[in-house]
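Record type: ASSEMBLY
Status: queued
Input:
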Amino acid sequence: MTKSSGSLFVIATSALVLISVASSSSAQQRKTETAGKTAAQAYKNIQILKDIPADELVPSMQFISASLGVGCDFCHVEHAFDKDDKKEKQTAREMMTMMFAINKNNFDGHREVTCYSCHHGSHDVTGTPMIAEETSASDHSRENSASETAHNTNPPSADQVIDRFLQAVGGVAALDKVNSRVQSGHIDFDGHQVPIEVYAKSPDKRLSVMHMPNGENTTAFDGEQGWLSNGGRSAREMNAAENAGAKIDAELNFPQNLKRMFDQLRVSRPEKIGDKEETVVVGRKQGQPPVKLYFDPQTGLLTRAVRYTETPLGRLPVQIDYSDYREIGGIKTPAQWTLARTSGRFTIHIDELKQEPIADSKFEPPAASSNDAGKPR
Ligand code: HEC
Ligand code: HEC
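Status: finished
Output:
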């Protein structure tokens, strides 16, 4: 196994996951040893989260960090995640016990209250309501007109919203003709620009290759299993929660399959993106977190998708904003999308798109590579 040096910064773009685990090379390294184990078996000093799958430990930590608005170092000393040197880490253990008890005693064991319910992005919890802000007359009139329009218009059904979207991007007949797509462009993150290629095949295969200075970063989903590799090093398999997210990202490339992705689709309350009120459709599938889809009521186009990564402590949101829809061969596809997580965001810009066949083998992980040692860094 190769060691990742320095701070680990994996950007997984095809599954559209940005995993940024600062200085957790030891945690990542461990990840390959975690398959099928509990957290207590794979890690050194687990007292509360003993029985969760080992590969859900770090995502749970990301959930805690996002809920409190802190970095890993708020509770951990550098390079020794197992040490209990910080009082905050011990407090966090007590908080986990409290959270599990609240849910057990009040909500039939359903995970209704999470760290975020009380912390709202801050380690400092306030129990005091806010002073009212000054309100202007125009605020009131805007509110009134908004509620009037809400009363006057009959909300469309989820089927109608999706049919309109399918129409807006070219119609089912045109969409059904395109089963694969090769896109190239660049990705913007942290002020850097890196070339990227994205391969997609209907219904749910996807591969992205980012050409980093130190080698390729690859993220792929072959329809069943996803995998990641960075800097040209050997691939690691995605865990169950990552697979579920990668599948959704892959499926969203082919709108003709949208209705088949879910067991149930329902229109929810409209929500604003910027100044615009968007139609929201919530897709549900047995045993999975919901997916929220936002449609522009004027153009009918999909502008945002929000999905969630399940962790034992709560759900981490992943938001994808689609824009710059361009028409090629009678089909409109977004030439730009931004993926945002609690840990950061990046934007992909597509310059060139080809609708051409891709072999299934393209999406399979490379045979366990023993030759990465010789790869240039
Ligand atoms: C608010 C406090 C807090 C934050 C922030 C936090 N952790 Fe933890 N971490 C804990 C606690 C508590 C445990 C032990 C859990 C238990 O005993 O069940 C732990 C355990 C771990 C372990 C297992 C170590 C071992 O070998 O026993 C790893 C790895 C870890 N955390 C990584 C991270 C990473 C990576 C981050 C940042 C994304 C992070 N943690 C952020 C509180 C925190
Ligand atoms: C029911 C509300 C509630 C929930 C749920 C909750 N907390 Fe807290 N938490 C608090 C309060 C209130 C304080 C402040 C206590 C004080 O000031 O002494 C606090 C303090 C903390 C602190 C110490 C912060 C500091 O500034 O030193 C940590 C760390 C912490 N919580 C972690 C967590 C984690 C991790 C979770 C989820 C597993 C969680 N909390 C869930 C209410 C909550």
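Annotation: The pocket of heme C (ligand 2) is lined by residues 64, 68, 88, 91-92, 95-96, 99, 113, 115, 117-119, 123-125, 313 (CB under 6 Å).
Annotation: The CA atoms of residues 167 and 349 lie 24 Å apart.
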